[in-house]
Automatic annotation (TrEMBL):
Residues 220-357 form a coiled coil. The keyword Acyltransferase does not apply. Belongs to the Homer family. This is WH1 domain-containing protein. It comes from Pogonophryne albipinna.
Length: 378
């Protein structure tokens, strides 16, 4: 028998197991407006390409944890605009109802067409306000990074233990690899991709509902203010109508008395003036009745808007419940993955221990063989 050879192969360090966050913080909308969205043609850099078939909601969102401002517009389940606001951005008004800004990260230029000049002015002012806030946030972040850098320079850094990994013993063969669970790695990667996809779908759906709810709340506030103003005007108009009706009745009585007295009353010119005043009052009464009818229709529209808002709140609650269930499933999946990794590490440790014992037995058998050979030679 030939002497058994022992060899050693270094074990490659495994990448750390990255856990997904258990809870995802939600961005809050701070401003919303409706506009037609365009993007610059990447080929010509001159023509505009419509990004939406109709006017969509364009909102400013603020992430308090990361201190980041974003402009987001969602059409259906597709994000039309997803732009982080930086201090270097500038919103330019190119016409009375159109404005644009450049996004260097996405390598594109966005254009917004508004229905009125007032909406364009409001969006431009909010853009400046958010840009200034982003500049202040960046300055604070840079100051914090400088302080953290100073602390990290003074702190000891010893990462050699983390980068080293225990060697793996191989028997009777150069660089023989141990048991590696490739199927487990494939399962882990596919499970991570599936979880990422589930989180992205839930994020887009929840973002769309948040934007819709914010728009409905804004419209609801405007309608409530208009309704209160309309109710106050209705009461005032009712008083005016009552006064006009009394005046009309009084004029009719005077006209009837004039007609009854015949020649003893005022002249025909006075009759014409009274008739004209009566016709004007009747026309004014008719106009006021039409205004009251329009206000009643607006009140019905307000109730419809209230119903739409309740439905949006209900859908948002359902989405939050689905997100909570999804987070629970993700936690269970992460726990299962963690247990699988621990089990695989334990099995590798047992295999390595068995290999070491086997090497010792082989070494003992080799010594015994050499002893037997010496005895036979003697």
């Amino acid at each position: 028998m030939e002497a058994a050879t022992l060899s050693c192969v270094e074990k490659k360090p495994q990448p750390p197991f990255k856990m997904f966050p258990h809870h995802r913080e939600r961005e809050q909308p701070i401003f919303s407006s409706r506009a037609h969205v365009f993007q610059i043609d990447p080929a010509t850099k001159r023509n505009w390409i419509p990004a939406s078939k109709h006017a969509v909601t364009v909102s400013f969102f603020y992430d308090a944890n990361r201190n980041v401002y974003r402009i987001i517009s969602v059409g259906g389940t597709k994000a039309i605009i997803n732009c982080s606001v930086t201090p270097s951005m500038t919103f330019t008004k190119t016409s009375q109802k159109f404005g644009q800004w450049a996004d260097s990260r996405a390598n594109t230029v966005y254009g917004l067409g508004f229905a009125t000049e007032q909406q364009l002015h409001q969006f431009s002012e909010k853009f400046k306000e958010v840009k200034d806030a982003a500049r202040l946030a960046r300055e604070k972040s840079q100051d914090k990074e400088l302080s953290n850098t100073a602390l990290s320079i003074a702190a000891p850094q010893d990462l050699s233990d983390e980068l080293q990994s225990p060697p793996v013993m191989c028997v009777n063969g150069p660089e023989d690899k141990l048991f590696r669970s490739q199927s487990a790695d494939i399962t882990l990667s596919s499970e991570k991709e599936r979880i990422k996809k589930m989180l992205s779908e839930g994020s887009i759906c929840e973002m769309n509902l948040d934007t819709e709810l914010f728009t409905l709340q804004d419209s609801n506030t405007k309608l409530v203010a208009a309704l209160h103003e309309a109710n106050a005007n209705v009461e005032q108009w009712k008083k005016q109508l009552a006064a006009y009706q009394e005046e009309t009745d009084r004029l009719r009585e005077q006209l009837a008395e004039i007609e009854a007295h015949g020649g003893h009353g005022p002249s025909d010119l006075l009759k014409d003036e009274l008739t004209q005043s009566l016709e004007e009052l009747e026309a004014l009464l008719k106009a006021k009745d039409e205004e009251i009818h329009i206000l009643q229709n607006k009140k019905v529209e307000y109730h419809d808007m209230e119903h739409d808002r309740d439905e949006a709140i209900h859908r948002l609650r359902e989405t939050e419940m689905r997100n909570a269930e999804m987070e629970r499933r993700i936690q269970n999946t992460e726990q299962t993955l963690s247990n699988s990794l621990e089990e695989r590490d334990r099995m590798e440790s047992e295999i390595q221990r068995a290999i070491e014992i086997l090497d010792i037995k082989i070494f003992d058998l080799n010594d015994l063989r050499q002893s037997l050979v010496k005895l036979i030679d003697k």
